[in-house]
Structure formats: C-alpha cells, structure tokens
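The protein record minuted underneath.
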Amino acid sequence: MKTGLIAKTIIASIGFLTFFTPQRGNAQIVPQVWGSVGGSEGDVTYSVGAKALGIGAELGVGPDGSTGVDVLKFLSLPIVSPYVGLGYYSNDKGVAFSGGVQVGATKNIFVGAGYNSVRGLNGQLGIRF
C-alpha cells in the first residue's frame, strides 16, 4: 500500500513540476487533435484529445463504461513531445495518472504511445493544423 502511494505521489510531483516549467512563445497557436485506442482489464478503451500551448485535455472511456477527463502537460521538444497528466474517472475508478510521448511522423501527422492508470496502454494518431 505504501509503495503505491509513494509512486502516485512521485508521478503527481513530476506532473506539477512540468506544469510550471516556462515554455517558449509561439507566433501562432497551432492546435493538435488525436484519437487513441488501447486496452485495460480485457476491455477496449478509447479517447480523443486536443493540445494547444503545451496544455492538453483528453476525454476517455475506460473499462466498465467509465468515462473521464485528463488534463495533460506537454514538454515541447523539436521532434518528440513527452507528457504527464492527471484525470478523474467515473464508476468508482477515481483519480487517473497518465504519461506518454508523441512523435512527429510528418509535418501534419504525429503518432504516440501512452499509459493511463484507468485506460491502460494506448496508441495514438493525430493531426496538426
């Protein structure tokens, strides 16, 4: 029990540290949207998300029909964009922790992989506008 609490505390702390990290200014806001499909507890899980200015939100459906929202913080690096997140899910699933990485495949397409403590592992495909 203590190990799980310590791990959750460390993940949340890293999330807060990255949330308050200053970002470079952009001349134009370029939104990104994505969809993801994954699996947890033998169920198919899916989500849709959007990102702008280094902050993102993801609406997901987990096992047993649980639904929830995650708030994500991205580190803007040239090709790869890692993220951490914190969310809340219904059906007594509670607080969810997430993390992953998105990689630019072309100028307007990106792919990614992530983990969510409620929705499990997932693969992502997205578009930059």
